[in-house]
Every structure is written in structure tokens, then in C-alpha cells.
Amino acid sequence: DQPGAVLAILARTPERENLWNWLAITYTDKVYAYTLADQPTYASYAELRAKDARVGVKAGSASESLLRGMGAKIEGVTHMEQNFLKLFAERLDVVVLQGMEVYPALQAAKERSTVDLSAGTSRLARTALVDLPLWVVTSKLTPEGDAHRLKVALEKFKLTLEYKAIVKRYEDKQKFQNF
Questions:
Q1: Could you tell me the mean pLDDT of each successive run of 10 residues in the chain, 179 residues long?
Q2: Which of 8, 62, 60, 10 lies closest to 31, judged by CA?
Q3: Bridging pattern class, strands 54-58 and 94-98
Q4: C-alpha angle with apex 13: 10 to 14, nearest 5 degrees?
Q5: Would you say 113 and 85 are in contact if contact means Cβ atoms under 8 Å apart?
Q6: What single string gives the DSSP state of each residue in 29-81?
Q7: Strand-by-strand arrangement of the 20-36 sheet
Q8: What whole-number distance in Å separates Cα of residue 80 and Cα of residue 98?
Q9: How many CB atoms lie within 10 A of CB 144?
Q10: What single DSSP character describes residue 140?
Q11: pLDDT digit string (tens) for 12-41?
């Protein structure tokens, strides 16, 4: 009567390590640091902390976890467009987020903004911080045999043309020039 498994896609962090069964990497996304074009850029999490940057992150993200552990000045929000609006208003120094979140966050920021954002991404500088493997995980309640079958099926699916087409469509969406 009760489900025996939860299936999710997560980045692997020390805090999450023992909470999940880590089955397979489904995709490796990039984590980017966005700043205003005329402001300093940041090339690593350590540099964000060392330069005492005011950092906007997604609440519950791997970046939030890592930066909090380093003692960085972070502001976590549930909707990343809030952080982009704060960056444009110069209330943050940098916004850190995964590539998959950038376009929707900028689109939402444009829709919610009370100021003209027509200059779009030309006002932003982007620096890649890290590659972030995203894992398919199951709950610890998942029977071992089911988890193994799912892992095998995922690894087979990653070899298909359909999977490669999905990844290509996703990567093409990240190549926007303006929003």
C-alpha cells in the first residue's frame, strides 16, 4: 500500500551521501557564477569566500550546501529570478546556479522586473565554476534488486540516440545569447 521507492535527480554532496542510493550519473551540468559585466568575476567557490562576495544561490542546492560549509555570505531563494533581480539592483555581487536553471530564471526575472532589462545577458559576465554530475537516486527503502534493475536500465538508456537527442536539446537551450 505504500511506495517502496522514491526516484529523484540530485547532485552528490557530503550531507546527502548516506541518505540515498546513488545509481547512475544522468548528466553533468555546469555551475556558473554570474556577475554584472563591469564587476569582478569569480572562478571558484573558494574565491567567492575569500573575496567575501554576497552570493545568491538556490535554497537547498549543492552550491548552497558547499558555500554555507565554507562560511560564505549566501542568500538562498526558492526562485532564482529573485537573485538575478537582486544582482541587477546590485544587492548581490554574484549569482551561482546550474546551467539548466539559467534561461528560465532570466526569463522569469524579465517578466517580474519593474525596470527595463532589454539589455539582457549583455549586462552579465558568466564564469564556469565546476562541473556538477547529476545522479539518479532512489530512497534507502528501495529493494536492492529494483535499484540494480533501474541502474542497468539507466545505463542502457544513456547509450541510445533518444538520450543523446534529449541532452543535445537541453545543451542547445543553454546557448542563448539574449533573453
A1: 69 90 92 94 94 95 91 93 92 93 87 73 87 92 90 94 89 57
A2: 62
A3: parallel
A4: 145
A5: yes
A6: EEEEEEEETTS----SHHHHHHTT-EEEEETTSHHHHHHHHHT-EEEEESSHH
A7: 7-11, 124-139, 20-36, 94-98, 54-58, 73-77
A8: 10
A9: 8
A10: T
A11: 988 899 999 999 999 999 999 999 999 999
Q: Contact at 8 Å (CB) between 162 and 29?
A: no
pTM of the model: 0.84
Cell of 24: 547512475
Looking up cell 545569447 gives 177
Q: Which three cell numbers stand for residue 112?
A: 517580474
C-alpha–C-alpha distance, residues 117 and 97, integer Å? 20
The residues with which 97 forms a beta bridge, in sequence order, are 32
C-alpha cell at 75: 542568500
Q: Dig out the grid coordinates for 152 from the structure.
A: 542497468
Q: For residues 165 and 76, give the distance between their C-alpha atoms in angstroms, rounded to a whole number.
A: 33
